[in-house]
Amino acid sequence: MKLGLVSTTVLMAAISATSVSAETLRLLTWGGYAPEEVIAMFEAETGHTVEVTTSNNEEMIAKLRATNGGGFDLAQPSQDRITSAQEEFGIYKPIDMERVDAAQIVPSMLAATASNTTFDGDVFGLPHIWGTSGLVVNTAEAGDVADYTDLCNDAYAGKVSYRLKRPTLIGFGFAMGLDPFAAYDDEAAYQGILDQVEETLTACKANVKTYWDGGDELKNLLRSGEVVASMAWDTGGWQLNADNADITFVAPASGALGWIDTFVLPARGRADDAAYDWINFVMRPDVAAMITNTAGNFTASVGGDEGVNADLKVRYQASFDQAAIDNIKWYPPVPAGLEMLEGATLDRINAAN
Amino acid sequence: MVSDKSKLGFYLLLSPLILWLVTLIILPHMGLFAVSMSEKVGVREYETGFGNYAVFFNEPLYWRTFARTAFMSILTTALTLVLGFPIAYYIAKLTRGRTKTTLFLMCLIPFWVSELVRTYGWMILLRETGVLSNFLLYIGVIDTPIEFLYNDAAILVGLVYTSILFMIVPLVTTLDSLDDSLIEAGYDLGGTGTSILREIVIPHAMPGIVSGCIVVFMLSLGNYLTPILLGGKDSLWFTGLIYTQFITRFNWELGSAFGFLLLGLSSAVVFIGLKLSRQSLSNTMGR
């Protein structure tokens, strides 16, 4: 009896001791950013447990807005979508730089993300993974597709695809010789660009097989040969290249669109310790290389590209020469309210016949 | 004393219903209504008014989408009725015992997997490199692959398939209750097959037909997955508009207004349908 009581007390003490340091990290991220093996290593090393929810930019903001920034402890939206969401809904809390091992992060990316995610004097984002969107082309069947507008060639009628989302509007804007980013702060000028893009995309609609929605759907379309050219993320092209050497990612002549996915802390997150531990853990070069190998995109970790497998590096270099890298158009922060204009344009394109 | 006890029992039995209605139906709708009444004028600035509802009527795109959705749903309902009625009649009147149970079960089995899986099944069948296109190529009817997906017909096929069960079940129940001797009497009195169908079977089955139609219409109108996946670039559906307002546009105010408009307009369509068929809601749903 007494022994039982003592052992129970010891057990209780042990449980309460671990619950002080070990937390459950509820991570809201993209598919591939938190591989099983990395989670297992992290859990073994720190004692925290990780629950992953995969999502995309819009859904992340919508989810956090619905709970006023609760329900998750760490989220990973793109850097251009942070300040407007913070301004409108106040769903994040500032990053405490004291608790981040900044030496592990490439200084230029850290600085760029900090300046793009600063709202009211506080920094809200840390860079994690970067990549681009451009064209994925089956070079055997559509070798001359070099820019977004080439998707509207009659030669490929019914055999192209893109998403009906804001990157498509912006990509086509650049391909048409316009500069949407320069017009971000001028609503009238931006509306002018949107109107021109709308006209092009409406005329192009007959060429499109379908607007893709998820990465797997697009890969299916390209793999089966139903689609020969599409607007897509670089990793999608590289993954397909592994299966079929004809299909690869092409940086468009007008410039690939560059994004950086970040770490942000939701305003009502409960496990900040675990969140900072996770950030410092995944930015370690060896862990960053593991994530690059599964996600396909490179990270902002110093030395993180060294452990990346050789095939991926070859594909990356085949798609990007130095000129293409210099030509990448990095997304500036989206001003609040711009999505309304884009939304109306996208609705009209969707409804056009 | 006895009446007190029975009153207590009445309220205890009533409480789950009240709880369900208030917490899951009435309160969320009140919240949604409040959101739909706030117009956004600036960053974190809102005004009360009907502006969001005005957007629906002022922008032709939105009410045309609603009209299209309603029209396609009515078409789906009609097709489901035409296809479902013979099946239900066969199950209810021409089979007995085990055969009846087996047939009924066979209608039910596809609904044991989720709607998403069933829709993907249709995508595998209908896509350009899919089963149907390849089969037609193989037997030599066509020489180049045909895309059957991403058009209105594909949406209709998907909607009819997902909702036909909800037509068959009420029809079987009402047809089951039709006494066979009435049909025999009809023949004895010199009626033909069509006149018996028109004068005896359909009038008797009317409540089942109407309740089936209401359920199928509402399910099609509120469907999101099937039209979006099978319709592709031509999948303009009203629920899709609501989804984009909430999720990709962060415009909950307009999305809520659309939600209420969908509720009101679909109720109006059902009301008109009931008036035209001279049925009442309690007569069809209350049985």
Automatic annotation (TrEMBL), chain A:
<dbReference type="InterPro" id="IPR006059">
    <property type="entry name" value="SBP"/>
</dbReference>
<dbReference type="GO" id="GO:0042597">
    <property type="term" value="C:periplasmic space"/>
</dbReference>
<dbReference type="GO" id="GO:0019808">
    <property type="term" value="F:polyamine binding"/>
</dbReference>
<dbReference type="InterPro" id="IPR001188">
    <property type="entry name" value="Sperm_putr-bd"/>
</dbReference>
<keyword id="KW-0732">Signal</keyword>
<keyword id="KW-0813">Transport</keyword>
<feature type="signal peptide">
    <location>
        <begin position="1"/>
        <end position="22"/>
    </location>
</feature>
<protein>
    <submittedName>
        <fullName>Spermidine/putrescine transport system substrate-binding protein</fullName>
    </submittedName>
</protein>
<keyword id="KW-0574">Periplasm</keyword>
<dbReference type="Pfam" id="PF13416">
    <property type="entry name" value="SBP_bac_8"/>
</dbReference>
<dbReference type="GO" id="GO:0015846">
    <property type="term" value="P:polyamine transport"/>
</dbReference>
TrEMBL record, chain B:
<feature type="transmembrane region" description="Helical">
    <location>
        <begin position="258"/>
        <end position="277"/>
    </location>
</feature>
<keyword id="KW-0472">Membrane</keyword>
<comment type="similarity">
    <text>Belongs to the binding-protein-dependent transport system permease family. CysTW subfamily.</text>
</comment>
<feature type="domain" description="ABC transmembrane type-1">
    <location>
        <begin position="66"/>
        <end position="273"/>
    </location>
</feature>
<feature type="transmembrane region" description="Helical">
    <location>
        <begin position="153"/>
        <end position="172"/>
    </location>
</feature>
<dbReference type="Pfam" id="PF00528">
    <property type="entry name" value="BPD_transp_1"/>
</dbReference>
<feature type="transmembrane region" description="Helical">
    <location>
        <begin position="70"/>
        <end position="91"/>
    </location>
</feature>
<keyword id="KW-1133">Transmembrane helix</keyword>
<dbReference type="InterPro" id="IPR035906">
    <property type="entry name" value="MetI-like_sf"/>
</dbReference>
<feature type="transmembrane region" description="Helical">
    <location>
        <begin position="103"/>
        <end position="123"/>
    </location>
</feature>
<dbReference type="GO" id="GO:0005886">
    <property type="term" value="C:plasma membrane"/>
</dbReference>
<feature type="transmembrane region" description="Helical">
    <location>
        <begin position="205"/>
        <end position="224"/>
    </location>
</feature>
<feature type="transmembrane region" description="Helical">
    <location>
        <begin position="12"/>
        <end position="35"/>
    </location>
</feature>
<keyword id="KW-0812">Transmembrane</keyword>
<protein>
    <submittedName>
        <fullName>Spermidine/putrescine transport system permease protein</fullName>
    </submittedName>
</protein>
<keyword id="KW-0813">Transport</keyword>
<dbReference type="InterPro" id="IPR000515">
    <property type="entry name" value="MetI-like"/>
</dbReference>
<keyword id="KW-1003">Cell membrane</keyword>
<dbReference type="GO" id="GO:0055085">
    <property type="term" value="P:transmembrane transport"/>
</dbReference>
